[in-house]
Design goal:
The complex is a heterodimer. Chain A is built from 10 helices and no strands. Chain A is mainly α. By secondary structure, chain B is mainly alpha-helical. Chain B has 2 domains: 2-99, RNA polymerase sigma factor, region 2, helix turn helix motif (Rna Polymerase Sigma Factor, Chain: A), CATH 1.10.1740; 103-178, Orthogonal Bundle (Arc Repressor Mutant, subunit A), CATH 1.10.10. Chain B is elongated, with a radius of gyration of 19 Å. Classes of the chains: A mainly alpha, B mainly alpha. The A-B interface holds A 1-5, 7-17, 19, 80-84, 149-151, 153, 210-211 and B 19-25, 27-28, 31-32, 35, 60, 63-65, 67-75, 77-78, 81-82, 85-86, 88-89, 93, 157-158, 160-161, 164.
Chain lengths: 211, 179
C-alpha cells in the first residue's frame, strides 16, 4: 500500500497525449504543404514537371503515395497507444502501396531493362535514393521520439509504421522534385530506401521503443 | 456480470478524471482498484504457472507502467481494455525476458554474493551505477544476506517494494555486466 501512496504522491495534473487530428496537423500536414510548395516552385523551374502534372497516371501515382503516407501515419499513431487498434489504416496504406507497385511493374519496359538498369547505375540518378533515405532517417527519428512518450504494444510494428510513414513522406516530397520518368528509376531509387527502412525500422524500434 | 463490469468501468473513469486534475486521493483509490483488477487479469493470463512471488512482482510492474503511461489513455475510449492491454504487454515482456535470461543471471538473482577483490567483476565500479538507496538495498540483501522482511522493516518499506527494488537492481547490474 505504501507503494501506491508513493505513486499517488508523485501525481501532478496531466493531460492525455494529443489526438489523431492534432498529430496529423503537426506531423503530416507540414509535409503536404511542403509538397504543394515544392511542386509549384519546381513546375516554374522545370518544364517537364509541368507537363507531367497534366498526365492522369502521374496524378494517380501521387494520390497513391499520399494515401500510403496518410495511412501509415494513422497506423503509426494508433499503434503507439495500448487500447487503440484499427487495422483499416494499415490496410489502406498497404493497399495503396501495393497498387503503386503493381502500376510500376505494369509500366516497366522489360525489353529495355538491361540498358535502363545500366543508365540507372549512375551517381546522379542514385541521388534520389540518398535524399529519400536522409529525409526518412531524420523523420523516423522524430517519430521514434514521439512514440517513446507513448506505450506501443508492439514496438516492432510501431517501428515498421514509422519507417513506412517517414519513407513515404520522403517519396512524396521527391515526387515533386524528381524529373526522372523511368519506371525502373522509381522502383530502384524511390522504393529501395523504403524497403531498406522497412527492414531496419522494426529492428531498431524493438531496441528503442521498449518501455 | 456485465452490469458489474460497467459499474467498475464507470467508477474507474470517474476516479481517473479526478486524477487528471491532480487529486492524489482519487488517484490512490484508482491505483488500488487497478491493483485488484490487474491481479485477477494476471492470474487469468498466467494460470497455475504463476507463482505468488512472480504474480506480486508482475502486479507491481504493471501498476508502475500504468502510472508512468497514464497520459496514453484517452477518455473517449473504455478504460478496462487499456488496463488489460498494459497488463498483457508487461506479462509477455516479462515472459520473453525470462526466456532470454542466461541461467547464470537467474542463479545470481537468488544467491548471496560475497565481496571479493580478486574477482573479475569490480563491484565498486558496478555499484557506482546505482543510486544510494539502491546501493543500500543491494548491500543489505545480496551482500549482508538480510531477509526481505528485515530490510523492509529497517528501511520502512513494504516487502513487495523491496522485492521489486532488488529485481530492478539486478536488471541494471545484469545490463552493465553484459556490456
Amino acid at each position: 500500500m505504501s507503494t501506491l501512496k508513493n505513486l499517488a504522491s508523485d501525481l501532478r495534473p496531466f493531460t492525455p497525449t494529443e489526438s489523431l487530428t492534432v498529430f496529423l496537423m503537426k506531423r503530416f500536414f507540414p509535409i503536404m504543404l511542403a509538397f504543394i510548395g515544392l511542386s509549384f516552385f519546381m513546375v516554374s523551374q522545370k518544364e517537364i514537371l509541368g507537363v507531367r502534372w497534366a498526365q492522369g497516371i502521374f496524378l494517380l501515382k501521387n494520390f497513391l503515395w499520399i494515401t500510403t503516407a496518410l495511412g501509415s501515419f494513422v497506423a503509426f499513431y494508433l499503434s503507439t497507444f495500448p487500447q487503440k487498434s484499427s487495422r483499416l489504416s494499415g490496410y489502406v496504406a498497404m493497399g495503396a502501396l501495393g497498387c503503386l507497385l503493381v502500376l510500376e511493374f505494369f509500366q516497366l519496359n522489360y525489353g529495355q531493362l538491361p540498358a535502363e538498369f545500366h543508365t540507372e547505375m549512375d551517381l546522379f540518378r542514385g541521388g534520389c535514393g540518398v535524399i529519400i533515405s536522409m529525409m526518412s532517417m531524420g523523420y523516423w527519428w522524430v517519430l521514434k521520439n514521439w512514440a517513446q512518450q507513448g506505450a506501443p504494444r508492439s514496438p516492432g510494428m510501431t517501428g515498421l509504421w514509422a519507417s513506412i510513414a517517414a519513407s513515404t513522406a520522403g517519396c512524396v516530397l521527391m515526387q515533386a522534385v524528381c524529373w526522372q520518368e523511368g519506371t525502373l528509376h522509381i522502383l530502384l531509387w524511390h522504393f529501395l530506401p523504403l524497403s531498406l527502412a522497412s527492414y531496419a525500422g522494426p529492428v531498431l524500434a524493438k531496441k528503442w521503443l521498449r518501455w | 456480470m456485465l452490469k458489474k463490469t460497467a459499474e467498475i468501468e464507470q467508477k474507474l473513469r470517474a476516479l481517473f478524471q479526478l486524477s487528471m486534475s491532480g487529486d492524489s486521493v482519487a488517484y490512490e483509490s484508482f491505483l488500488s482498484m487497478v491493483t485488484t483488477i490487474v491481479r485477477k487479469n494476471l492470474q487469468f493470463l498466467g494460470g497455475k504457472k504463476l507463482s505468488p512471488e512472480l504474480l506480486e512482482e508482475l502486479q507491481q510492474e504493471v501498476v508502475l507502467s500504468i502510472h508512468q503511461k497514464k497520459h496514453t489513455y484517452s477518455l473517449e475510449r473504455p478504460l478496462l481494455p487499456w488496463i488489460y492491454a498494459i497488463a498483457r504487454y508487461r506479462y509477455i515482456d516479462d515472459y520473453r525476458q525470462k526466456k532470454r535470461l542466461p541461467a547464470m543471471v537467474e542463479w545470481l538473482d537468488d544467491t548471496k554474493i560475497e565481496k571479493d577483490t580478486t574477482e573479475a567483476i569490480d563491484w565498486d565500479e558496478l555499484l557506482a551505477f546505482l543510486s544510494p538507496q539502491q546501493k543500500e538495498l543491494f548491500v543489505r540483501i545480496k551482500m549482508e544476506g538480510q531477509s526481505y522482511a528485515q530490510t523492509a522493516e529497517t528501511l520502512g518499506l513494504s516487502v513487495p517494494a523491496v522485492k521489486v527494488g532488488v529485481h530492478r537492481i539486478m536488471k541494471v547490474l545484469k545490463d552493465k555486466v553484459q556490456r
